[in-house]
Amino acid sequence: MPEQHPMRGIVLMSASLLLFSCLDAITKHLLQTYSVPLVIWARYTVHWLLMLFILGPSMGLRLLDARRPGLMLLRSLCLLATSGCGVAAFSQMPLAETSAIIYIAPVMVALLAGPMLGEKVHRHHWLAMGIGFCGMLLIAHPGGQVTPTGILLAVGAAAFFSLYQILTRKLSLTENLWALVFHPALTGSLLMSLSLPLIWPDTLPPWPDLLQLGAIGGIAVLGYAVQTRAFRHAPVSQLVPLGYSQLIWSTLLGWLVFNHLPDGPAIIGIALIAVGGLVVIRSQRTKA
């Protein structure tokens, strides 16, 4: 058992969330020039190639281990659908509002864990869902910076991510940790490569754009690695609530990079979604 250093874990977790927010910002910037499928392909391809380069020599074929291949494939497809809906939503809406809607996923997981995992759904889970729904209504208020299509895409991303997390819970009991990270990246890259002849631009992207396309995969790997290290130094109950600080980073980056700040109702809506998620996290800590 690694020695616990809670403050180190908190710092690492915060750094990983900043990395993921930067990933979203670079993705949104690239979407001003390139298609959604191309950006997703670049992210997944660089992701699995880096894992193969870093872990391949030591793990070899163990990266492909799958005791339950059907569920592993379904989980990978859920994450690919999450990326597709989420990236498409970022192409239509600001960072902060899109990130906030996607962050209703923890509440969805708490509700889906009942029928899918046999876990008890408590009243405060429904309360949290109600709070989060009210937050979504405020973000979607008339005159805001969101679109109906963008909202549907963000909700779709949250729904698919919820299914992905449920499947992760089931598979984490039987599957290798790094195989769980490697399979979705490889599956996503292979499937998106089928569309590459149709989505690749007529001319080679300039070097700054190629670096950014590569960076989104690299940042994803680095973010997961830093976050995994954080959980070695501090309990999950201390680190999971920090996840909602990513909404702060998304808001700041949306302002600094895209010159957008949410208006008053949207800020209240973002806060309500965070509160709903924290209610679920608090109840899980109490139960544990």
- In whole angstroms, the N-to-C terminal distance is 20 Å
Percentage of residues in DSSP E strands: under 5%
- Shape from CA axes? globular
Structural class: mainly alpha
Stretches where pLDDT falls below 50 for ≥5 residues?
A: none
Helix percentage: over 70%
Question: Average pLDDT value?
Answer: 86
DSSP helical segment count: 13
How do the SSEs run, as a string of H and E? HHHHHHHHHHHHH
Q: Largest sheet, if any?
A: none
Q: Radius of gyration in whole Å, from Cα?
A: 19 Å
Task: Briefly say what this structure is.
By secondary structure, the chain is an all-alpha fold. It has helices at residues 6-30, 36-59, 69-90, 95-102, 105-117, 123-139, 148-171, 177-193, 196-199, 207-233, 236-239, 246-258, 264-287. The protein has one domain.
How does this model look, in words?
The chain is mainly alpha-helical. The chain has one domain (6-287). The protein is built from 13 helices and no strands. The chain has helices at 6-30, 36-59, 69-90, 95-102, 105-117, 123-139, 148-171, 177-193, 196-199, 207-233, 236-239, 246-258, 264-287.
Which features does this protein show?
single chain, mainly alpha, EamA_dom, 288 residues, 13 helices
Task: Give me the secondary-structure topology.
Blueprint: H1 6-30, H2 36-59, H3 69-90, H4 95-102, H5 105-117, H6 123-139, H7 148-171, H8 177-193, H9 196-199, H10 207-233, H11 236-239, H12 246-258, H13 264-287
